[in-house]
Specification:
- The structure holds two protein chains of two kinds.
- Chain A starts with 7 loop residues before the first strand and ends with a helix.
- Chain A has two domains: about 180 residues, 3-Layer(aba) Sandwich (Rossmann fold), CATH 3.40.50; about 130 residues, Rossmann fold (3-Layer(aba) Sandwich).
- In chain A, helix 9 crosses helix 13.
- Chain A is built from 13 helices and 14 strands.
- Chain B has one domain: 3-Layer(aba) Sandwich (Rossmann fold), CATH 3.40.50.970.
- Chain B has a five-stranded parallel sheet, sandwiched between helices. In chain B, strands 4-5 form a two-stranded antiparallel sheet.
- In chain B, a hairpin with a 2-residue loop joins strand 4 and strand 5.
- In chain B, helix 1 crosses helix 2 and helix 2 packs parallel to helix 3.
- Classes of the chains: A alpha/beta, B alpha/beta.
- At the A-B interface, helix 3, helix 4 and helix 5 of A face helix 5 and helix 6 of B.
């Protein structure tokens, strides 16, 4: 299948908004629910132009009431709609935890598929230019069966994955990295192989080491790979794109080729997505490993504010370079 | 709703709860709260959605047309129900009968979820409404307060009913409330709200019926506080010793099923004998259905 696109260069923010606009035009059951999604055009312009096109019947404004609003979206989905509930920032996920973890996640399984909510919870978070709302809570969502969690790192993926999330047969939490939201633009045009939910991407082929990442730290991984190439070390980079469920096949294939694994994310290391990646490789791909895997992530402290403190907690490209060098060096 | 059919519904509700209470010391009986259940849920259209509280849900399922065999199969966890044993028979729902399931044991989020169903009804521009009920304990959660606010702001076709049996396990909820009058809580959110005698089925049906009519014609949400009484413990083996015996006796004298039977007898439309036969018929129907649901269980065990 090939995807259609808008034929212009878009940021992640605008790609997601374009995908939503396209789905709303073709499917009248798609509605947006949340704070500031009306005339204001969404926090950080994430729904720019949608209110003018669809009005307040389909851009449904609510106040600060995240828990009830996620449940409201759930109920609307059970009545036949396909709501996108906007949580504004990922920091607010815990406010809606009961709705997400006890209700939305359970519905399909507990009713034997009789009621399957088709609901997207769209939010954005992590370190970014505004430095506010820096939480990375994807592992918390991933622990509970029933939720799909998507974190794109490129505009084309963001477009494809939002389209797929709206059409998905179950609930999807869609998290946009604030750092990349208005970052490099990319041509989102026709004919590409569209990103699918549950499928990771090998975005750089390499033979020496597999660097697995997602979201903001994908940038650090790419910077590190470019630097390491100059030293003659060839990194393969896997962008998970969907952090729950993980694409085991792509992970194991890549580690099978390179024999070395570095996982890097901005979220806390302990109990994180990286731990799950390492566990998959330990259980099913350890015979290919020529060195112990390395995890890079935030230490177990709350996310600090001051730039030097924040920088000291988030994995830098230099941390990835050091980890790769030590892995390759160990093997040699 | 004729007086005779209302009494039949009340009697069946009582017999279902008594029968299940006799089956398990862990059952959460709704004995004493039947007038609230029947008054709220009997007068709706099949296309309306209902989101009943956990206590008394089986009675609502029966009112919405599920067969007793099907209901009991859910209670016994046998195959054949859509949840295939994943969800307890008390918490299950039904898409066909438009009953919202309780997919978690956490009370609260079902209230805004019901509001979401109401949002769906409103967007479809149909005339369906949603009736959601919850206990006086649940009323203290943010979920209810956020829903009251959203329902008014979005003018949702939603009727919120507090099945106010006055106890949250052993806690007398009034003793843990600041502002005492629950219907006044709702009035503060600027929606029509009243307290009714939850043991008088006519009062409940009247108030809820008015609220449903308002919701159906674009008048937005309403709140009804049905003051009733949990005649038994939180669960069967809870003796309820924390309650003053005078209070228990006072409410027993206002038994909702007997009150309706006495009314019919006073009108001359029912004799003692009729009432005895009605109770007997209900019990027989329940026992037969339980036996059938159980025989399926036995068959399942043999084949498993």
């Amino acid at each position: 299948m090939t995807a259609t696109g808008v034929g212009s260069r878009l940021s992640i923010r605008d790609a997601v908004s374009e995908a939503i606009m396209h789905e709303m035009e073709t499917d009248s059951s798609v509605v947006v629910i949340g704070q500031d999604v009306g005339r204001f055009g969404g926090a950080l312009g994430t729904y720019s132009g949608l209110y003018d096109r669809f009005g307040d019947d389909r851009m449904i404004e609510t106040g600060i009431s995240e828990s009830a609003v996620v449940s409201l979206g759930l109920g609307a989905s059970l009545a036949g709609y396909r709501p996108i509930v906007d949580l504004m920032f990922a920091d607010f996920i815990p406010v809606a935890a009961n709705a997400l973890l006890s209700q939305v996640a359970n519905f399909s399984y507990m009713t034997g598929g009789e009621w399957t909510p088709q609901l997207v919870v769209r939010t954005r978070g992590g370190d970014g230019p505004y430095r506010a709302h820096p939480q990375n809570l994807e592992a918390l969502l991933g622990h509970v069966p029933g939720l799909t969690v998507v974190i794109p790192s490129t505009p084309a993926d963001a477009y494809d994955l939002m389209t797929a999330a709206i059409r998905a047969p179950g609930p999807v939490v869609f998290i946009e990295p604030l750092y990349l939201l208005q970052g490099p633009r990319q041509l989102v045009d026709d004919g590409r192989d569209p990103a699918r939910i549950g499928s990771a991407a090998v975005v750089r082929r390499g033979r020496d080491v597999t660097v697995v990442s997602y979201g903001r730290s994908m940038r650090m991984a790419q910077v590190a790979a470019a630097q390491l190439e100059r030293d003659g070390i060839d990194c393969e980079i896997v962008d998970l794109r969907t952090v729950v469920p993980l694409d085991r096949g792509t992970l194991l294939d890549s580690v099978g080729r390179t024999g070395r694994l570095v996982v890097v994310h901005d979220a806390w290391l302990s109990g994180g997505i990286g731990a799950e990646v390492v566990a998959i490789v330990a259980e099913s791909g350890h015979t290919h490993l020529s060195a112990p895997p390395v995890r890079l992530g935030a230490p177990n402290i709350p996310v600090p504010y001051a730039q030097p403190l924040r920088d000291a907690t988030l994995p830098r490209s230099q941390d990835i370079i050091d980890a790769v060098r030590s892995l390759v060096g160990e093997a040699r | 709703m004729t007086a005779a059919s209302t009494l039949q519904q009340l009697t069946m509700g009582r017999c279902i709860e008594e029968f299940l209470a006799a089956q398990s010391p862990h059952w959460y009986p709704a004995i004493g709260e039947e007038a609230t259940l029947i008054g709220c849920f009997a007068g709706l259209e099949p296309t309306d959605f209902v989101a009943p509280h956990y206590r008394g849900r089986l009675v609502v399922m029966w009112l919405r047309g599920l067969s007793l065999v099907d209901i009991f199969r859910g209670v016994r966890g046998t195959t054949g129900s859509p949840e295939t044993g994943r969800l307890s028979g008390l918490h299950r729902g039904s898409r066909e009968a438009r009953i919202l399931p309780l997919v978690t044991n956490v009370l609260g989020p079902n209230v805004p979820t019901a509001a979401g169903l109401a949002l769906g009804c409103k967007l479809q521009r149909g005339s369906q409404v949603v009736v959601v009920s919850f206990g006086d304990g649940t009323a203290g959660l943010g979920d209810l307060h956020e829903t009251l606010n959203l329902a008014v702001a979005l003018r949702l076709p939603l009727v919120l009913v507090c099945q106010n049996n006055q106890y949250s396990i052993s806690t007398r909820t009034a003793s843990t409330r600041g502002p005492q009058d629950l219907s006044a809580w709702a009035r503060a959110y600027e929606l029509p709200s009243e307290q009714v005698d939850g043991n008088d089925v006519e009062s409940v049906a009247g108030s809820v019926g008015e609220a449903v009519g308002r919701a159906r014609t674009g008048g937005g949400p309403s709140f009804v506080d049905c003051l009733t009484y949990r005649a038994a413990g939180h669960f069967v083996s809870d003796r309820g010793s924390y309650r003053p015996s005078e209070e228990v006796a006072e409410w027993a004298a206002r038994d909702p099923v007997l009150m309706e039977a006495r009314r019919a007898m006073a009108e001359g439309s029912l004799t003692e004998d009729d009432f005895r036969r009605l109770r007997h018929r209900c019990r027989r129907e329940i026992e037969d259905a339980w036996e059938e649901a159980s025989s399926r269980l036995a068959a399942q065990e043999v084949s498993a």
